[in-house]
Amino acid sequence: MTMTKYNRSAATLSKNRTPDSVSPFSGMCATCVEGCIGMCEIGKSAYRGPELIYPQPFGIMTAASEKDYPIDWSHFSIMGSACGAYGVPADSEHAVFTNVNLEATIGDANPLKLKLPIVVPGLGSTYVAKRNWEGLAIGVAISGCVLTIGENVCGMDDDAEIRNGRIVRSPDMENRIKCYRDWRLDGYGDIVVQFNVEDTNLGVPEYVLSKLGIETVELKWGQGAKDIGGEVKLATIEKARSMKQKGYIVLPDPDDPNVEEAFRVGGVREFERHSRLGMVSEEGFARSVKELRDMGAKRVFLKTGAYRPADLARAVKYASDNRIDLLTVDGAGGGTGMSPWRMMNEWGVPTVELCCLTYRYADYLARKGRYVPAIAFAGGFTLEDQIFKGLALGAPYVKAIGMARGPLCAAMVGKTVGNRILEGDLPVYIERYGTSMEEVFYSGTMLKEKLGKDFEKLPSGAIGVYTYFQRLAQGLSQLMCGARKFSLEYIDRSDLASLTRDAASISGIPYITELDEEEARAILDG
Known about the structure:
Elements: H1 41-48, E1 63-64, E2 76-78, E3 104-106, E4 112-114, E5 118-123, H2 127-131, H3 133-143, E6 146-149, H4 153-156, E7 161-163, E8 166-169, H5 171-181, E9 190-195, H6 197-202, H7 204-210, E10 216-220, E11 231-234, H8 237-245, E12 249-251, H9 257-265, E13 271-274, H10 282-294, E14 299-304, H11 309-321, E15 326-330, E16 334-335, H12 341-346, H13 351-367, E17 374-378, H14 384-393, E18 398-402, H15 405-423, H16 428-431, H17 437-440, H18 444-451, H19 460-482, E19 496-498, H20 501-507, H21 517-525
Parallel strand pairs: 5-6, 5-18, 6-9, 9-10, 10-14, 14-15, 15-17, 17-18
Antiparallel strand pairs: 1-16, 2-19, 3-4, 7-8, 11-13, 12-13
């Protein structure tokens, strides 16, 4: 049964007065008493209004749905085998997990190599991304994976130069690209720039392709966290006015004298900046792809969100028709910025169901002999078993898994631990590993040997991302070894079994006791 929480959540810093006695359909306390100070979402909304729409505290956190969806990755089990091997000789000397090859390739005309099958989707103008960009970008770069600069970065840059409504220079954009490129190793991975409506109006595509040497770009239809445009909060009225002048929607209106007075006295403490909805059309999409390629883009990606199935079909079809290099499909339920909390919980197609539909549509086109782009599944992936299941469920079309909240978490924790090491203020449960970067971080010594003197310049957030990715790499290698698949191209849907009838019904993956039925009977009759 699908469960959801109403009227209270750590995400909105709200709770019920009577937590043990709550109406399940409204979320209100069974007895709502006059005199209560108002700790629930309704109560806090009575004095802070629209602020309660969004997860808090903004700028230093990411958020994900609390909803318990009917199907998740635990409803599938990875199948191992006692014989055979794919990708290495079938003997016990070669069939060891250290021989698993995790390298992936995206695109045909200008293929992109990845050390690990991981792409980090668009992390744009949100403060939490900007505050942790250095560690995240460098960590992803040295791991040989793909990182995407999300929407609105140029527009939010206070130091950007804009002439006649077009971006001329953005130090923030330049720094984000440089962070990644300076640490990219052996030609693996790439830094991608994503565009929305405002970015296109501002001329960001021309700027990054012609002046900053970007080779890979991404058109954005949406994300799994919400089905409206990107949002951030603005702390000053000056910033709010600046964003309004650049063409963004800003609430409340910073030019309204009443709002100005409310901000002065503290009734209004912050402003919301909103992006506009994109309007997808087949002709418009084809035109955009051609324009980007004409500007010099070697690879064009598309990212879509958890929209209704017809829109997913459009994404798969348009990506096929225009020979897109990578289609990222992002399931409902999570986000790295400021998404409306109830929307995050209650809209869209959840990740597993969206992945099943994507496979179905891609396979339909493939059977008709049509081009199918490389696909990345995204939406709540964090650990190696989920990565394996996503790759298997979408095989052979899925080439990578999109992860944002996990790598950002690793960057934030790595930064915090590194700062505590420098301050000599480690908690006991970390100090038992040591007191230096090399001692505390599992990958510290390996990175020091790998990078030489550059190790001293490495931010601890990057060490955190790299170390997290190394854990994923080893864990995924072990799962693949158990399935006897020693390279990613050998993973297929037969590596999974459904643990529930519902999972089998929506995925087409056989129920576990019905798996291998014919083969098992042949063995018994042999």
